[in-house]
Amino acid sequence: MTVATVYREFGSVDARGVSPLYERLSLAVAEDPEVLALIEALPPRSRQPNLLFGAVRLLGGPVGDWPSFRSFVLAEWPLIAAEMRVRVTQTNEAGRCAVLLPVLAALPQPLALIEVGASAGLCLYPDRYSYRYGSVELGAGEPVLDCSTDGVPLPDSRPEVVWRAGLDLNPLDVTAEDDVAWLDALIWPEHEHRRARLRAAAKIAAADPPLLVKGDLVDDLPALAARAPAGATLVVFHSSVLYLVPADRRARFTERVRTLPGHWIANESPAVLPYPDLPPPPSDLAHNVLALDGEPQYWTRGHGQAMTALA
User: Fold this and answer.
1) What's the pLDDT tens digit per position in 186-202?
2) How far apart (Å, rounded) are the C-alpha atoms in residues 129 and 44?
3) What residue segments make up the domains of the chain, in order of their start?
4) 94-172+184-309 sits in which CATH class?
């Protein structure tokens, strides 16, 4: 897939209806040979739209209109490229806990959680956040995660988590100013509610930091799983992570995770983790598939704002 195609699809599918600014910028990048040539000179892992836009925002660049964005990219490309080479897309969206919660709460309690691609570990606190599913509310305090549902059995309480750990090639620290600045830069520009959610979730994580291990999702997962306490249900989960993993390693991971005790929750694009005979999604907007132990259960939106039963 060419870089132009990646940006065109990001604008027309992922950002459409979610971020008008990123939709316009992505489509413009896809038609600009000069900007495309700069991106194509980067390693393949460093070319993603979210990485480009996050690096520009981290450096204080404009994302409000294409001419200003383009001028900044061309003028400051050495700085932008340097950031894109050393950073990875680590959108640590706590809102995704809202689509994980109904599945987690239905498993045998208590739980021992491992998140693959954990970033700063903000999705390791589904028991600490508050939720609003229409008229159904769970928990109290901030952040409140709003999620619309269709055909989803909702729990009457949050799960009990007795151990939480994350695995990431580059774990982030919510007590480090630079790491939080990067997480903020990855939030799409119109989403002020997500910025407030990041701050509230980071406060919870900083008060009781999770175990975050620097390591590979294939090679280092079994050893981390072995550290989970006896008597708790082990749950390995990930959300919008596998698109960053090469296809061969992705296949190795899905083989490896199936050998572990407990359960596996995947919340990924069906283009990245495909399933046979999926029904059509609820709309033509971008959706993930949330699967339990390899069996698809729900269509979900990327930031946890909606979930729909597949049946």
Assistant:
1) 999 998 988 999 999 99
2) 36
3) 3-86, 94-172+184-309
4) alpha beta
